[in-house]
Amino acid sequence: MRGMSEPAQPSISHEAAFGPATPYRDVTCGDLRAGDEGRDVRIAGWVHRRRDHGRLHFIDLRDRYGLTQLVINEAESPEAAQVASRVRPEFVLQVQGTVARRHAGSENADLETGDIEVKVREITILSEAETPPFYINEPDAPVDESLRLRYRYLDIRRRPMLERLLLRSKLVQAIRECHHRAGFVEVETPILLKSTPEGARDFIVPSRLQPGSVYALPQSPQQLKQLLMVAGMDRYFQIARCFRDEDLRGDRQPEFTQLDLEMSFVDEQRVMDFVEAMIVEVSAAVVPDRPIQQLPFPRIDYHDAIERFGSDKPDLRFGMELVDLAPALAAFGETGFKVFDEALAAGGRVKAIVAPGMGESSRSQIDELVSFVRRFGAKGLAHVSVAADGTAHSPIAKFLGDERIAAIVKTATGQPGDLILIVADADHERVADVLGRLRQDLGLRLGLADENVLAYCWVMHFPMYQWEADLGRWHATHNPFSGVVPEDEKLLVTASGDAYKPSHADPAGRARAMQYDIALNGWELGGGSVRIHKRALLERSFALQGYTLEQMNELFGGILEAFDYGAPPHGGIAMGIDRWAALFSHQTNIREVMAFPKTQSGTDLMLGSPSLPELEQYSDLGLRFVGVEPAVEPGKDKAAQ
Ligand code: ASP
């Protein structure tokens, strides 16, 4: 037996254990260089490409690390040549041979192993392969996404998908390193949980041991991370899987991954300082060639973001800000154009954006813009084009008159060649939303956004609550646990007592949340807040959100009780890892950075989930299926949107 004082030794050396060598290979397909000339090696991998030149066979052997050219000379290795003549793309081979310099002129500068080839003596076929449903060795060939998802394991063999997963792994590694350095503790929280509302439907899992009861999969670990603060953990983070049953979009999946973190004894500034420094470090580690547009990150007030960019996740890589035309129009009294007059009379807005260089747009190009804004609820889109000679032309000139058109051009600072696009509506939020979307779309289409730049920004000072007229209650605009800024806490005072009913007149409607969102290039990357840490205040906030005391105890009793035992002031944030990885790899759909994503209807095309349960599973769980209309027509599933 080993004495207590003898340190334990692993059975093999560190180098051997951690190196590439295995019983099948000495090196990987990406390892060999000119300096290895003369070395006898075994390598293993997939047949990427095969070429025969008479009695010489060439095979590019591929693995995750690279490609190595194999040469099999019939005259020197007749048996190996015979095997080589049988292999087809995607066969898995093990070969043994000698590393040789390639002939002068036949080096491949695009490959790290491009100076050498392996002269093969022996080939073993480890696995044969069917002809794949798409080319693995032509990574740029377009392939239907459903096919890629059905055969994801083949799709991941292709370089672009592999690169993206490698980038994602690097991202998560950089995040972990940064947090550990800052004293955060990584804690895993349960997947079988209770409802954690984040504004979506829950996925539920029926309990066998307690028939009729269900677990909910976490929409986020929100309550648990707050409980960890009550537990004294001080700094927590997790690469957390979250589940939200909502309709899928390019930046949404039913399950996704968040960097979730929480800190104790902090205010908004302190959380944002850490997160910003962490983002800068992580960006430098993962995409060192991509510059950050502005440091420190701009901090934009929510209302300004909406006014100026029509979005609470503004893309700051380009200007094209929204311009309010009301003051310019007001100088002339009523415009005589019903759409504008009615919008302004109803307290709405008439706002514009300027699309540079689009002044010459054809009728059909304008029609396309009109249908774009209609899709998002605008009634129409007016336009004024500024010709090369500076004269303005517009179909609405006949209603407005030349003076007003000139005032619009001046206010919008339209230059020769520009197209001024105007939306009017009684609902000012709609004006902002529609123009915000149009701005983003045109900004990208016109190439105004530098693809390489990372424009991070903070958006702050969100209203805490929004009135939900149909339900007669306030809705927390972000997170039901967010705190309100200390000066506004008194606005919550009316929300107490058993008889309290939420009312649109509650002063709490004016309360500002201690909430901060982080946006990157027009995407919401994350959001967080400093939380309420006092039971009485949290109960008031829940009362505003329409919960009775009984419902509060039923849904949030655990955290409310915990606050009776000494909760430190705390706050945190969660950031979408899938979105971050997608933006880092220039993708517009998070499926492109997920190994095994679902389609738009939540289907896994490869393994076939969701699937019908076994009959015993129903009876074990005490369930009976009574039938519902499927949300998606069978066979109508589409991967892309
Ligand atoms: N739990 C929140 C979310 O999932 C993030 C946070 O406030 O920390 O959006």
Protein architecture, described:
By secondary structure, the protein is α+β, with helices and mostly antiparallel strands. The chain has four domains: 15-127, Beta Barrel (OB fold (Dihydrolipoamide Acetyltransferase, E2P)), CATH 2.40.50; 161-291 and 589-593, Bira Bifunctional Protein, Domain 2 (BirA Bifunctional Protein, domain 2, 2-Layer Sandwich); 318-448, GAD-like domain (Gyrase A, domain 2); 457-567, no CATH class. It is 28% helix and 22% strand. It is built from 18 helices and 22 strands. It has helices at 14-18, 78-84, 145-150, 152-155, 159-181, 222-230, 268-286, 302-309, 326-330, 338-345, 363-375, 397-400, 402-411, 428-445, 535-544, 549-562, 577-584, 615-621; strands at 40-53, 56-63, 66-73, 92-101, 116-127, 185-186, 204-206, 214-216, 235-243, 255-264, 299-301, 323-324, 349-355, 382-386, 392-393, 419-425, 456-460, 465-468, 473-476, 515-520, 523-530, 570-576. Strands 6-9-10-22-21-20-17-11 form an eight-stranded mixed sheet, with helices on both faces. It has a five-stranded mixed beta barrel with strand order 1-2-3-5-4. The protein has a five-stranded antiparallel sheet with strand order 12-13-16-14-15. A hairpin with a 2-residue loop joins strand 1 and strand 2 (56-63). Helix 5 (159-181) packs across helix 7 (268-286) and helix 15 (535-544) packs antiparallel against helix 16. The termini are far apart. The relative contact order is 0.10. The model has no long low-confidence stretch (mean pLDDT 93). Aspartic acid is lined by residues 198, 220, 222, 479, 527-529, 572-574.
